[in-house]
Amino acid sequence: MKENQAQNSEQNSELDRIKYLTELLNRASKAYYAEDREIMSNYEYDALYDELAALEEKTGIVLANSPTVNVGYEAVDELPKERHESPMLSLGKTKDREELKSWLQGNPAILSWKLDGLTIVLTYNAGKLAKAVTRGNGEIGEVITNNAKTFKNLPLQIAYQGELVLRGEAVISYSDFEKINQEIPDEADKYKNPRNLCSGSVRQLNNEITAGRNVQFYAFNLVKAEGVDFQNSRMEQFDFLERQGFQVVEHYLVETDTILDRIDFFEKKIEDYDIPSDGLVLVYEDIAYGRSLGRTAKFPRDSIAFKWADEIRETTLLEMEWSASRTGLINPVAIFEPVELEGTTVSRASVHNVSIVKSLKLGIGDKITVFKANMIIPQIAENLTRSDTLEIPTTCPVCGQPTRIQQMNDVQSLYCTNEKCAAKQIKAFTLFVSRDALNIDGLSEATLEKFIDRGFIHEFADLFELEKYRDEITSMEGFGERSYQKLIDSVETARNTTLPRVIYSLGIAGIGLANAKLLCRHFDYDLEKIKQADEEALSEIEGVGEVLARAIVEYLGDADNLQRIDRLMQKLNVEVPQIDAGSQTLSGMSFVITGSLNHYENRNELKDIIEQKGGKVTGSVTSKTTCLINNDIASNSSKNKKAKELNVPILSEEDFMGQYLGE
Could you tell me the pTM of the whole model? Predict the structure, then answer.
C-alpha cells in the first residue's frame, strides 16, 4: 500500500510539473512572438522545453496545449453523426436541500459542480485520443474529434493503453467570454452567455476557430477503462482520470451529516467561480449499488442534480438609466432601492431591450421583484404594479440627437442615429489612452464608457479636464479618492508628449506608431505642414503610399476633426526634437531585431535608437531588410532561415553596434 501511495505521489508530482511547464512555456512564447518582450532567455526556454518533452515521454501524458505538439488545423464540410453506445440520460432535479439529503438514504456519495457547457464523450485507444462526440440528443451526437484536439487543457496522449471512454463538459470561462465579447463591436452580435459561445465553438467546421476560443474540458464520469480495478469506488475513478492528465470537476465525498455544509461551501464559491455552473450533481460513491438501482424512462437512479433556488426580493423602481454603447445601441438599466441578494447589495439590473421594458409594463415607482440569474446576474423577475408609464427616450443621453426604435427578430431595441455620437467613438478613446498613444493609466474601456455615459467626455480634449468632475468620479463604484488622484496624475503626465504619439492617438485609418514617426520626421515635426500636405506629397513618403495618404487627407480635411485637434493641442505640451541632419546615419535603412539583447534593456530601446538615426525597424525579414540583428546567429529560427534565403546579413548586437552605430 505504501509503495502504491508513493507511486501515486510521484505521478501527481510529475503531472503537476507537466502542467506548470506547459503553461510557463506557452506564456513565454506568447510574450516573445505576440508581445515583443521576453520573460526568459532562449537558453532557459530550451532547457525547460527539453524537461517537458522528457516528462511527457516518461509519463505518456501530452496535453493538447503543450508546446511540443502542433495540432493541425482542418476544415470539414459537415460534422458526421454517431450513435452513443449507451443513451446519455438527463438527471432528475431538485431545489430542496433536505430532499437532496434524504436522497442519500444513508449512503456516501460524491457532490460536484454541474457545469454549464456542452457535454462531450471522449474515447482513447492505445493512449491516444481516438474520438470525441457531442451529447447531441442523448442518443446521437456529432463527431468533433479535430475540434477537441484544440481544447486547451485536454491530454492528446495518456499513459493508460487500454480503451478508455469518459464523459465531461466543454466550457468557456466567464473571463474568456468577456474577452471575446469585447472584440465584437456590434452589440447585437455579442454572445449572450458562455454556454452558447461554447456550443458554437465546439461545433465549428474549422477547428482553427475552436482553438482561438480557449475551450476547456472537465471530466465528470468514467464510462469504461478495460482491466482497471477501481475497487467499486467513483472516487478511485476520479483519481485515475487525474493521473492520466485530465482536469476533473471539483468534487467531494459527502454523507448525511456533511452534505448540507458542503452545499453551503459550493454556494459561497460560485460567487467568484470563473467556470459557468448551473448547480450541483450528486452521485453514489458505490458504483455497483448505483447500477443496481437501474433507471426510469427518463433519468438514471444513481445520480441527481441540485439546482440553486432563486432568492427573490421585492423593491421599488427608482429610475431607468439609458446607457449608450459603441454600436449606437442604448441599453435600459433599472435602478431600484438597494436589496440584499445572495449575500451582496444590489441596486441595478440590465433590462436588455425595449421589448422587455414594454412586456414588464414598467413605470417609475412600480413595485418589482428581483433575483440573480445563476446567483450572479441581477434581473427583474416581475413587475407587481405594471403601471406602464415609463417613457422611451427620443434623444440620446450622450449627444442629445434623435433616437429610433429598431426591430430585429421580433426584438425591439433603441439606437442613437448620430454617427458622430461620442458613445460610438469608444474604440477611438480606447486607442487614444493606450500605451503607444497618450498612455493614460486608469482609463479602461469600461471606465471610458461610464465617463461618456455621464457626460464627462465628448472629445479627446475633455480627458484633460476630468478634475471638474472630482465629486462625481470619487463617488462612482470602483473609484475612491486614491483611484481618482492616480488617474489625474496620469492625465497630467500624459500632457507632456510627442507629435508621433499624438498623430497615432487620433486613430487615422492605417496609421500606426511607426507610420506616425515617419510622417513627423518627414515634415520636421510640424503639425501645420502635415495638415497642409496633399495626397501626392504624402504618398511619396517611403512607407506611406497612396492608401494611407488618402486616409490622412480625408481625416485632416474634415473641419470637425481639425477643430477637435486644435482643442486637443491646447491641452498638451508637445516636445519637438532637435534633429541634426548629420545624425540621420541610418536613413533609408530597414532592420529586424529578434532574440534577447545584452547591451540594451529590450528590443524597444534599440528600436528607438535606430529610429532616432533615421532608420526603420520592421517585424519580418524581406529583400529590403538591411540586416537581421540576432545574437544567436547559428539558430534555426524562421527569421534566420529567411535571412539566409534572401542573403540578408545576420549580425550580432555588438557587430551591429560597431558597423552601424560606430560604437
Answer: 0.50
